[in-house]
Amino acid sequence: MTHSMVLPVDPSAAAGRGGQQGGSDFSELSRRITEAGLLRRRPLYYSVRFGLVAAALAGCTSAFVALGDSWAQLIVAVALALVFGQLGLAAHDLAHRQVFSRRRPSEAGGLLVADLLLGMSYGWWMNKHTRHHANPNHEGKDPDVSPDILVWSRRQARRAKGLPGFVGKYQAALFFPLLTLEGLNLSFSSFRALKSPSMKKPVLEGSLLVAHFVVYFGGIFAVLSPVKALVFLAVHQGLFGVYLGSVFAPNHKGMPMIEEGTRLDFLRRQVLTSRNVRGGALIDVFMGGLNYQIEHHLFPSMPTPALAEAQRITERYCAELGVPYHQARLIESYRVALRHLRSVGEPLRAREG
Questions:
Q1: Cβ distance 88 to 120 under 8 Å?
Q2: Which residues of 214-247 are buried (b: 16+ CB within 10 A; e: fewer)?
Q3: How far is CA 183 from CA 85, 146, 160, 173, 280, in A?
Q4: 13 falls in which pLDDT band (50, 70, 90)?
Q5: Would you say residue 264 has pLDDT above 80?
Q6: Maximum distance among all alpha carbons in the chain?
C-alpha cells in the first residue's frame, strides 16, 4: 500500500455494523479490551521506565562535565540523542494520559519533560497530535500529511511549488537526511507557536523553553571550544531528529489516504490507515510502544505495557470482521515509506520531462 492509494467514498462495509455514528464494531472490541484489564494504569512500569531515562540523562550530563573539552564528547552526543528520543516518547505517553488518568498531573509532567528537558512545546505538539489522531491520513485534516517540505499524495505533488515542489522530486532520497533537521524544526515550531491563539499557557511554556536553551547552549559552549561545540550540536540534534523520524515514519506512511466524503467508522478509520511494526522487545523499547500503532490509535490512553496483549486481541477481532490488519518488520516499513515518497513525487519529476 502507498499513500497515493485513496479510500473510496462509501466503501463496502466501511461503516461497519454500527454505521458512521453507531460504532458497534469498536464497542465490542472495547468491551474485550476492558474485560482483559488492559486500560488500567501501570504506575510501577512508568516509575521504572522514567527513572531509567532520568538516570541516563543524569549520566550523560555527568560524563559531559567530566570529559571537558574533548572530542570524546561526541560519544556523549550520540548517547544524549537516544535519551532525548526517549524523553520525546515519555512526553507522548504523558500527553495521552497513559501515565496519569487526570489532566493536571499529565499536563505538569508533559510541560516538564517536553518544554524544560526537551525544548519542545507541549501545548503546540499536543494540539497537532490530537488532530492527527482524530483524522489519521486525512488530507486537509491531518497535520502530519500537510504539504510542508514533503508531499504525501500525487494531488499535493501536482499543486506543489517552491521548496516542496523542488524537494518532492527527490524526497525519497532526501527523507533521512532531512530528518537530521527535525529536532531543530520542533524547537523552531515551538517558539513560533507561542504567538498562536490556541496556546493556553504561552508565558509559562515560553519561559520553560528559554530556560532549556539557556542551560543547553550555555553548558555546551562553556565546556567545549567553539568548533567542538558546533560539532557536538550537529551530532546530537541530527541523530535526535533521525531517531524521532525513524520511530514515527513507519506508522502511517505508505498507508491509504482518506479523501473528503469517505464514510468510515472509528475502528476502520484507525485500523486501515495504520501499520504495526513487528520485532520483539528491542523494537518495543526503541519505538516506545508506537510499534503497536493500530492499538495505540484505537486506545490512545492505553499504557505501553498493555499494547502487546491488545495487539493479539485486536488482530483476531479484525480477522473476525474481515478488516485488513497490516504489520511489517521495521526495515520493510521503511522500504514501503520510501517507495511511497518516490511514487507520489512522480508528477513533479514528470514536469521536468
A1: yes
A2: eebeeebeebbeeebbebbbebbbbbbbbbbbbb
A3: 10, 18, 25, 19, 27
A4: very low
A5: yes
A6: 65
CA distance 270 to 30: 14
Query: What are the pLDDT digits (tens) for 211-220?
Result: 999 999 999 9
Q: Decide: 172 and 341 in contact? Cβ < 8 Å.
A: yes
Q: What are phi and psi of 258, to 5 degrees?
A: -105, 125
Element (H, E) at 216: helix 202-223
Strands (E), the chain: 6-7, 257-258, 276-278, 327-329
- What are the φ/ψ torsions at residue 31 (nearest 5 degrees)? -60, -45
Return the pLDDT at 18: 42
CB atoms within 10 A of CB 6: 16
Cell of 56: 541516563
Residues 6+ apart with CB under 8 A from 308: 284, 292
DSSP states of 62-125 as a string? HHHHHH-S-TTHHHHHHHHHHHHHHHHHHHHHHHTTSS-SSHHHHHHHHIIIIIIII---HHHH
- End-to-end CA distance of the chain: give it in Å, rounded: 27
What is the structure's pLDDT at 249? 87
Query: For the stretch 289-303, what's the b/e string if a residue is b when 16 or more beta carbons lie within 10 angstroms of its beta carbon?
Result: bbbbbbbbbbbbebb
Tens of pLDDT, residues 68-96: 999 999 999 999 999 999 999 999 999 99
8 Å CB contact between 189 and 128: no
Alpha carbons 183 and 187: distance in angstroms, whole number: 7
Q: pLDDT grade, residue 19 (50/70/90)? A: very low
The C-alpha R_g of the chain, in whole angstroms, comes to: 21
